[in-house]
Write a structure and sequence with these properties.
Radius of gyration: 23 Å
Order of helices and strands: HEEEHEEEHHEHEHEEEHHHEEEHEEH
Number of strands: 16
Distance between the termini: 47 Å
Oligomer: single chain
Strand content: 25-35%
Shape: elongated
Structural class: alpha/beta
Helix content: 10-25%
Largest sheet: 6 strands, mixed
Strand order of the largest sheet: 9-8-7-6-15-16
């Protein structure tokens, strides 16, 4: 199954890379001759190491074989790209050499580009929320009530909202980590989802909600996560304007022939990107998590390194490949709102509705709670609204 999953991923990303016009003399690894030539190959990174002289040796594999390639430290531009390469990345490389060793002089990622930003004729707003953590003793219930009251009020921005996206960790869960029972206000999944449902029933019926799970929800942890289970979350199934979706999920909003695509992914792999990519690690990118999400778009994959996120392999199709470039890629997980534009793709990493937990305090993560970004699909204007009630977020749990 794992071999089939990697083959299907390779073939999907190979199709994207084959569209690059700059790849001349593109051949498969088993066709590389014994005499030195300039070539291009598309390969998966299976091994990477740094020599005593600080050169980098990378082993690439395709469906026909494998070969080692050397990147010299004095070639600054390609050396920086090589440092960033992760195990299991699929890239195109330009090189010179023979079947024994290649010398790299450029690396191309599949990358994500949108030729232009989609806009609608109607003034339609969409809003993004994540990490509500209903049931936690640090859940910011008063802040969320503040948001719900605004949503059902007369504010012009609220009145134009047609869609809400909830990007995972909707409840705090049970047994997610050792000792969790000591930090729970509600001790069962059923109680936690009942609280969540009581909130969602107050959302105006003209607003359609999309909700995917995260690691704390009542589904398996392995991606792709199925929709939230009726066994534990029966009250959610009675809410007519709520659409439960998988994690990840690609939602297409339509106006005539126009499509606005929102890719929802809770974001389990964000930590691996930050820990493994030197630029992100050195800049402490947990404070600016959208920089990590850029790397998902660059690689056209949500969790490229085997072990960066738990997953169930599928030989037919890798569900974590970004086959269609979205207009918005929204995540949760890190509890900090961050926004970036990458080649016309809007990246939104979600805020949270939970004050700092003991674990976050231990690892130095400072949450940025109760922020809601709202995007206007006509003007593409993005507003960030703050529903924080300072007394509550400082520890007076409501």
């Amino acid at each position: 199954d794992f071999v089939g999953a990697f083959r299907s991923r390779y073939q999907s990303l190979q199709k994207i890379l084959l569209q690059r016009t700059e790849l001349y003399n593109l051949i498969s690894i088993n066709k590389i001759a014994s005499d030195r030539k300039q070539i291009s190959i598309i390969g998966m990174v299976t091994e990477k190491r740094t020599t005593k002289n600080k050169n980098i040796i990378i082993t690439f594999e395709d469906l026909t074989g494998r070969i080692s390639a050397l990147v010299k430290e004095d070639m600054r531009e390609v050396y920086a790209k090589a440092r960033e390469l992760q195990l299991d990345d699929i890239v195109a490389v330009k090189a010179s050499g023979n079947k024994d060793l290649l010398f790299l002089y450029d690396i191309h990622y599949p990358d994500a580009f949108l030729p232009q930003k989609v806009t609608f004729q109607e003034e339609t707003n969409i809003a993004f929320l994540s990490d509500i953590h209903c049931g936690s003793d640090r859940h910011l219930g008063k802040c969320f009530e503040n948001f719900l009251n605004w949503l059902d009020g007369e504010d012009i921005v609220a009145r134009k909202i047609s869609y809400l996206f909830f990007v995972g960790d909707n409840v705090d869960g049970v047994g997610i980590f050792p000792g969790q029972e000591h930090v729970l206000e509600l001790k069962s999944m059923q109680e936690q989802y009942s609280l969540l449902a009581s909130y969602l029933r107050r959302v105006p019926k003209n607003i359609t909600m999309f909700m995917c799970p995260g690691q704390h929800d009542a589904v398996r942890v392995a991606a792709p996560q199925p929709i939230i289970s009726k066994k534990y979350a029966a009250p959610l199934y009675d809410i007519e304007n709520l659409v439960l979706v998988t994690n990840p999920a690609l939602i297409k909003l339509k106006e005539g022939k126009k499509e606005f695509k929102v890719l929802m992914y809770h974001g389990a792999s964000i930590h691996q990107f930050i820990n493994e990519i030197p630029e992100l690690r050195e800049s402490k990118a947990h404070r600016t998590p959208a920089k990590a999400v850029r790397h998902m778009l660059k690689r056209r994959h949500l969790a490229p390194t085997h072990s960066s996120a738990i997953y169930i392999p599928s030989a037919e199709q890798d569900p974590l490949v970004i086959n269609e470039v979205p207009d918005v890629l929204c995540t949760g997980e890190v509890h900090r709102l961050d926004i970036e534009n990458y080649n016309n793709v809007l990246i939104i990493t979600g805020s949270c509705w939970q004050s700092q937990t003991p674990f976050e305090e231990k690892v130095g993560n400072i949450p940025d709670p109760a922020k809601v970004p709202v995007l206007n699909l006509k003007t593409r204007e993005l507003k960030v609204l703050d529903f924080n009630i300072s007394d509550e977020s400082k520890g007076d749990t409501g």
